[in-house]
Structure formats: structure tokens, C-alpha cells
Amino acid sequence: MARRVERAAPARQRERVAAFRLGVSAETRAAMLLVAKGYRIAARRWKTPFGEIDVIARRGRSLIFVEVKARDRADDAAQAVTGRGKRRIVAAAALWLAQHPEDTERDIRFDVMLVTSARIPKHIVNAFDASR
């Protein structure tokens, strides 16, 4: 019987896997905080041709689209929310609304969650609007 030899994954692949795991962990922490605040999670990691929305949640009349950024420092996470990223989220949110007409009458908001290790995520409510 032939023995399988497993090779170490190339460094770049290991980095991508680590980044993916960090992102999923950060999104889970962000979603847990939202649930603790009384939100209901409508979707996580919602993929569109425009990109992915990390978390979509509802509470009362509000519908929020949440971008989650995980970094070692909150300042670094905040700087990672770029204009291009905001435009991507706004475009993806428009697609969500087109596919979920029941949400079009809700108050729409774009929030950001800054996730750092060993701290509660920082929830920035109404971090940006669709016109920016």
C-alpha cells in the first residue's frame, strides 16, 4: 500500500487560511454582540456579485448592514474600512433590498464592527451612509 506524503502548505496558502479563520471568528463575535443587543441576524457572509456583506441584522424597524474588520488595533481596523469597501457594501445592500422587498420600508443603516483580540467588538452605529 502506498503511503501518502503530506506536504506543508505553501506560506501564502497558510496565510489565506489564517485570514479566513480570523474573519469568520470576528464575524461570529460581532453577530453575538448584535444578538446580545436585541438584533436578529438575517444573514452572515451574504455573497453577491458586488462582494460580501459580513452581517445583515434586523431590530424593530431597523435593518443594518454590518462590515466587520478584525485587526490587532482598533485604529487599524477602522482605517481598513475604505471608500471602495463602502461602495461595495452599498451596492450589495441595494441587491439585498431588491431581493427582499419586505425590508424596503425599514430604516436602513450601515454599521461597522471593529474586532480586536481579547476585547468586546466596538460597534460603530451608522458608520457611513449610502451617499458616501
Q: Largest sheet, if any? A: 5 strands, mixed
What is the number of E strands? 5
Domains, number: 1
- Write the H/E string, N to C: HEEEHHEE
CATH architecture: 3-Layer(aba) Sandwich
Strand content: 25-35%
Q: Determine the N-to-C terminus distance.
A: 62 Å
What name is given to the CATH topology?
Answer: Trna Endonuclease, Chain: A, domain 1
| Secondary structure tally, helices | 3
> What is the CATH C level class, in words?
Alpha Beta
Taking all Cα atoms into account, the compactness measure Rg is: 17 Å
Average residue pLDDT: 88
Q: What are the segments in which pLDDT stays under 50 over at least 5 consecutive residues? A: none
Large-scale geometry: globular
Strand order of the largest sheet: 1-2-3-4-5
Given helix and strand content, the structural type is: alpha+beta
